[in-house]
Write a structure and sequence with these properties.
Layout (H helix, E strand, L loop, with lengths): L3 E10 L4 E7 L11 E2 L4 E3 L2 E7 L1 H8 L6 H17 L8 H17 L6 H9 L5 H17 L4 H18 L1 H17 L7 H5 L3 H23 L6 H10 L4 H13 L5 H17 L4 H13 L8
Parallel strand pairs: 1-5
Antiparallel strand pairs: 1-2, 3-5, 4-5
């Protein structure tokens, strides 16, 4: 038996809000919005029936709790598609471009690991076009290196490779990178708090200060051991730390322990200052021990206790 196909268009009478069923041909195109085919065809007797709904009727069904969910879903998709197509184009400004670039750089560095370093380098070398771009990258990289001490070596290696790439592609930017990094590294050591200043701070402030000092010392030692900075930087930092309070002395001890080989003539005044402070001040035993171990790592056999 031959199956006949019939197309049923379901209209919505906007005056009485009730559906009106009308039989139409499959190629009808007399409506502002083409009717939407909904659901699978139904078979009854010798007829295959295909239902079409107008957007107006779908709107009516959307407010009817007894309507079939698949029908209203089609309406939702239609409305979403139209609303997306009418979304105004985003206006791009210098500020928005800068924000987008910073977000991209931060997102890329958050994913950085040893296995994907080459890929991240390719992504960021296209972002670093000016000295200001390099400053954004290094500011983020510097903070991550300080805050994530386990990965300081990774970030230093990334910096080294990025600078090498930029020296060959954008020489002016590549030459400015060490200066930007040194400015960041030295910033924390400009005003080292003394013991009396530490006593006035809250425990929370002291914890933050200690975290930052130890992170900076780890970064400086990694930069020095990688050959990216000369001994003048760690020596400068030690000279600042040796006059500070207990947190600064703990950071000094760590820096001496991690810095590796360094000319003893450059750091002898620092060693003498440590010995003087131990003799004149009643430093806690723990600090005497860690400072003695730091001096030993630099080749001095000075006994502080």
């Amino acid at each position: 038996m031959t199956t006949k196909t019939r197309h049923i268009l379901i209209l919505c009478d906007l005056q009485c809000n009730s559906p009106v069923i009308e039989k139409v041909g499959c190629n009808e195109n007399k409506y502002i919005y083409p009717p939407i085919k909904v659901g699978n065809p139904t078979y009854k007797n010798e007829y295959k029936t295909i239902h079409y709904y107008t957007p107006e009727h779908l709107l009516q069904l959307k407010h009817n709790f007894h309507s079939v969910s698949s029908v209203t879903d089609v309406f939702d998709k239609l409305i979403l598609k139209r609303s997306n197509s009418s979304t105004p184009m985003k206006i791009v400004t210098a500020i928005s471009e800068n924000i987008d670039s910073t977000s991209f750089i931060r997102s890329s560095l958050n994913k950085l690991c040893q296995s994907n370093m080459s890929q991240i380098l390719k992504e960021l070398k296209t972002q670093v076009r000016t000295v200001n771009d390099a400053k954004i990258v290094l500011d983020i990289l510097f903070k991550k290196a300080v805050n994530e001490k386990k990965f300081t070596g990774l970030y230093v290696d990334f910096y080294k490779q990025l600078q090498t790439i930029l020296l060959s592609t954008r020489e002016e930017v590549g030459k400015e990178m060490p200066k930007i990094l040194l400015d960041n590294a030295q910033h924390l050591f400009i005003n080292i708090p003394e013991k009396t200043e530490e006593d006035q701070k809250t425990e929370e402030d002291l914890d933050i200060m200690k975290f930052e000092f130890l992170g900076n010392c780890r970064l400086i030692s990694e930069l020095y051991k990688s050959g990216l900075v000369k001994s003048a930087l760690p020596v400068l930092c030690m000279n600042q730390l040796v006059n500070g309070g207990l947190i600064a002395l703990e950071a000094l001890a760590q820096l001496m322990s991690e810095i590796g080989s360094i000319n003893q003539k450059e750091i002898k005044p620092i060693k003498d200052k440590i010995v003087q402070r131990v003799k004149e001040e009643s430093l806690p035993k723990r600090y005497c021990i860690i400072l003695e171990n730091g001096l030993k790592a630099l080749g001095f056999n000075e006994k502080l206790m």
